[in-house]
């Protein structure tokens, strides 16, 4: 897949079907502060221009913890998330280190069929790497990863344009390089958005 220059989704080019039929729900998993959830909700809403809300998640992540890896199994957490409506997209937000068996870690994971995704904040923080906190950088990274996983729930694959939010992030350098928006090639593929 080849994408051209990234662009921002605007209310004018989203179409009425998207704004009226799709709702995005963010759910904190574990101990996530309310102010952070509100900030992420506002950022995601500003990109997708559709109803975005926060609903209660769950706090006990222990059944997904792998003591040998000292990480949490992303797919198990993903399977624990539920939707309340068929046209809803759900993103679980966790502040623990996630993995899938074939990779050392993942920033997130999505299930296209269910419309559910999960994102880890853990490795998006500068503190994880021994650096001083950078709240602006952290929020930008978190927004990009949430939008990326939501893109998968709408059926988008990875994009070869390294500026597009759908570009695969193999490392934080990739996340930092890309923008929080869909490129001109990926954006039309979710409009009108497929309703599950």
Task: Please explain how this structure is put together.
29% of the residues lie in helices and 17% in strands. By secondary structure, the chain is α/β, with parallel strands linked by helices. It has one domain (11-189): Collagenase (Catalytic Domain) (3-Layer(aba) Sandwich), CATH 3.40.390. The protein has a 5-stranded mixed sheet, with helices on both faces. Helix 3 links the parallel strand 1 and strand 2 (52-54). Helix 3 (34-48) crosses helix 5. The two termini are 24 Å apart. The relative contact order is 0.20. Mean pLDDT is 86; it is low at 1-20 and 192-196.
In short:
By secondary structure, this protein is an alpha/beta fold. It contains six helices and eight strands. Helix content is 29%, strand content 17%.
Q: What brief labels describe this structure?
A:
196 residues, alpha/beta, Collagenase (Catalytic Domain), five-stranded mixed sheet, three-stranded mixed sheet, 6 helices, globular, disordered N terminus, disordered C terminus
Write the layout of secondary structure elements.
Elements: H1 11-14, H2 16-21, E1 23-29, H3 34-48, E2 52-54, E3 65-66, E4 71-73, H4 74-80, E5 88-94, E6 98-99, E7 108-111, E8 116-120, H5 135-153, H6 172-177
The CATH topology is: Collagenase (Catalytic Domain)
Span between termini: 24 Å
pLDDT averaged over residues: 86
Strand order of the largest sheet: 2-1-5-8-7
Rough shape?
A: globular
Which class do the helix and strand fractions yield?
alpha/beta
Helix content: 25-40%
Q: Could you state the order of secondary-structure elements as H and E?
A: HHEHEEEHEEEEHH
- CA-atom Rg in angstroms: 16 Å
Give a short account of the largest sheet.
5 strands, mixed
Question: How many distinct beta strands?
Answer: 8
Give the full name of the CATH homologous superfamily: Collagenase (Catalytic Domain)
List unreliable stretches of 5+ residues: 1-20, 192-196
Identify the CATH architecture: 3-Layer(aba) Sandwich
Query: Number of helix segments?
Result: 6
């Amino acid at each position: 897949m080849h994408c051209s220059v990234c662009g921002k989704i605007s209310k004018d080019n989203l179409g009425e079907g998207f704004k009226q039929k799709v709702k995005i729900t963010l759910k904190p998993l574990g101990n996530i502060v309310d102010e952070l959830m509100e900030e992420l909700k506002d950022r995601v809403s500003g990109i997708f221009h559709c109803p975005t809300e926060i609903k209660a998640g769950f706090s006990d992540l222990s059944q997904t913890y792998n003591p040998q890896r000292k990480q949490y199994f992303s797919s198990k957490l993903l399977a624990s998330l539920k939707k309340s409506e068929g046209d809803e997209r759900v993103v679980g937000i966790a502040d623990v280190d996630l993995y899938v068996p074939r990779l050392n870690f993942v920033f997130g994971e999505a299930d296209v069929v269910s419309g559910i995704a999960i994102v880890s904040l853990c490795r998006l923080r500068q503190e994880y790497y021994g650096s001083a906190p950078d709240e602006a950088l952290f929020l930008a990274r978190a927004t990009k990863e949430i939008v990326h996983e939501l893109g998968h729930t709408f059926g988008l694959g990875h994009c070869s344009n390294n500026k597009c939010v759908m570009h695969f992030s193999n490392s934080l350098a990739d996340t930092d390089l890309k923008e929080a928006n869909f490129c001109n090639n990926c954006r039309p593929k979710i409009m009108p958005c497929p309703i599950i």
